[in-house]
Write a structure and sequence with these properties.
alpha/beta, Dihydrodipicolinate Reductase, domain 2, 8-stranded mixed beta sheet, 6-stranded parallel beta sheet, 14 strands, globular
């Protein structure tokens, strides 16, 4: 019988109960044994509906459970580091939802807790282990598009509910934190480097005080990224990676459906009408199952998580620079992770 990591879940967030927990329950190396909420009735209801053996009325109770090996933290952004640190100090491995924290400095607190406690801690960028992104990185590494010179991304949805956590400034809501973090991450992956500076514009909503339309330019040593993210326009997402020999287009870069194939377009640039486009199609898969099982394997085999914390701190440093630029109106350089 395959040994499985026993997971506890902090909170009953929509992403947890609708996507991640059901995906974990399909995993080979993962099982969900406990869920907690500050409202015991919510925890009990989620446990009943999802077939989870234990329900707790506080996060502390779950962290005190010796039968829980690892914790999945999908709490609001401003609680990511606090409760991930507490989980690590309780001896639990931690998979924390993106963005890892509200700043690079806060993310470093979690990195220090990982080093202090010796547990595994990773950020839940599920896209990193999706077959389509593994293929994209292989295409870049093999030179199929030449040297990457430009990355362009767009990610948006329309959410006007002032009570939604994505629209609450005190919860570190807003477009850049919620979805722009992916576009920063994709850029860093595509270039295989860190940006040296960033410049940005951000439209702040007068009531929610969150950014609802943010655009940025990132300067890398060998090229540029341009992207826009928004919480107040029509839903859309796309990433283009353009090199000296060709172009890669990721049609659905983030919200892939587990029951539909995904497509990546590889264009040799020979025909502006698409005659030089090769369509790479990937079979349906649940990227959350893949993510969670790979994290469980890193726990069982004592290897590095798919998204190590050092990478997460660097991603947060770029986000910090974008926010600073939106306020200053000038170019800002990401702070060194050691700063």
């Amino acid at each position: 019988m395959t040994k499985k990591v026993r997971w506890g879940v902090l909170g009953v967030a929509g992403i947890a109960v609708k996507k991640v927990i059901p995906a974990m329950q399909l995993g080979r190396w993962s099982e969900v044994t406990a869920i907690a909420s500050r409202d015991a009735s919510k925890a009990a209801r989620a446990a009943r509906e999802l077939g989870i053996p234990k329900a707790y009325g506080s996060y502390e109770e779950l962290l005190a459970d010796p039968s829980v090996d690892a914790v999945y933290n999908p709490l609001p952004n401003h609680l990511h580091v606090e409760w991930s640190v507490r989980a690590a100090e309780a001896g639990k491995h931690v998979l924390c939802e993106k963005p890892l924290g509200v700043s690079a400095a806060e993310a470093q607190e979690l990195l220090a807790a990982r080093d202090r406690t010796g547990v595994k801690v990773g950020e839940a960028f599920m896209v990193r282990t999706h077959p389509q992104w593994l293929a994209v990185l292989d295409l870049i590494a093999s030179g199929r598009v030449g040297s990457v010179r430009s990355v362009a991304g767009y990610f948006s949805y329309n959410n006007t509910d002032p009570g939604n956590i994505r629209n609450i400034a005190e919860y570190a809501g807003g477009a850049l934190m919620d979805i722009g973090c992916y576009l920063v991450y994709f850029s860093r992956l595509a270039f295989g480097a860190e940006p040296v500076r960033a410049v940005a514009l951000a439209e702040m909503h007068p009531q929610t005080r969150t950014d609802v339309l943010t655009s940025a330019i990132l300067e890398f040593p060998t090229g540029h990224t341009v992207f826009t993210c928004s919480t107040r326009v029509a839903p859309y997402q796309r990433v283009q990676i353009v090199g000296t020999r060709g172009r890669i287009e990721v049609v659905v870069p983030v919200n892939t459906a587990p029951d539909r194939p995904t497509r990546v377009l590889l264009d040799d640039g020979s025909d502006p009408y698409g005659g030089g486009v090769e369509v790479l199609e990937f079979e349906p898969c649940d990227q959350y199952t893949i993510q969670d099982d790979l994290f469980s394997r890193c726990v069982l085999e004592d290897t590095e998580p798919p998204v190590p914390l050092e990478e997460s701190v660097k991603n947060m440093a770029v986000i910090d620079a974008i926010f600073r630029s939106a306020k200053s109106g000038g170019w800002e350089s990401p702070a060194s992770p050691a700063a």
